[in-house]
């Protein structure tokens, strides 16, 4: 008798989420390195968070787009506040450039969704089995799912 049914899809989703998070943490930790060869620091921060957010959208297709953007913004906050632990000051330029990187990856997705809604390309309101409204059946005298 099979007690646990393990499907490979949830395991793959968890693995993809863990990989995106590991790469994001690695990239954010690399931002702390000070080097002479770095170009404009704000540009590096914006491109780093653009890459993290775009990579999350590519690697996690079944996660809601708003959730990915929210987690990316929390990561921006964590990366911005982290230097305070070491006794450094907050950098508004770096925080805003991090947020700009997240918005550069997120904005096209929301713009495309807005275009779909305006064009009328939307899904039915009740597409899941449990969400169907009940309709009264006059022959039987009770409500049945639609």
What is the string of SSEs from the N terminus onward? HHHHEE
**Total strands:** 2
> Main sheet: which strands, in order across?
1-2
The rounded Rg comes to 22 Å
The tally of structural domains comes to 1
Largest sheet: 2 strands, antiparallel
- Provide the low-confidence segments as ranges: none
What average pLDDT do the residues reach?
78
Note the total helix count: 4
Shape: globular
Structural class: mainly alpha
> What is the distance, rounded to the nearest whole angstrom, between the alpha carbons of the first and last residues?
36 Å
Amount of helix: 55-70%
Strand composition percent: 5-15%
Name the descriptors:
mainly alpha, two-stranded antiparallel ribbon, 4 helices, 5% strand
């Amino acid at each position: 008798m099979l007690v646990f049914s393990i499907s490979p899809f949830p395991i793959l989703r968890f693995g993809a989420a863990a990989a995106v998070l590991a790469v994001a943490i690695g990239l954010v930790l690399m931002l702390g390195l000070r080097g002479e060869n770095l170009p404009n620091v704000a540009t590096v921060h914006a491109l780093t968070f653009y890459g993290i957010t775009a990579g999350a959208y590519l690697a996690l297709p079944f996660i809601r787009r708003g959730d990915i953007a929210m987690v990316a913004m929390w990561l921006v906050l964590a990366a911005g506040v982290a230097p305070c632990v070491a006794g450094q000051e907050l950098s508004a330029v770096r925080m805003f450039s991090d947020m700009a990187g997240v918005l550069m990856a997120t904005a096209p997705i929301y713009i495309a969704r807005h275009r779909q809604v305006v064009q009328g390309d939307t899904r039915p309101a009740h597409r899941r089995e449990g969400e169907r409204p009940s309709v009264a059946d006059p022959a039987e005298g009770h409500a049945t799912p639609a």
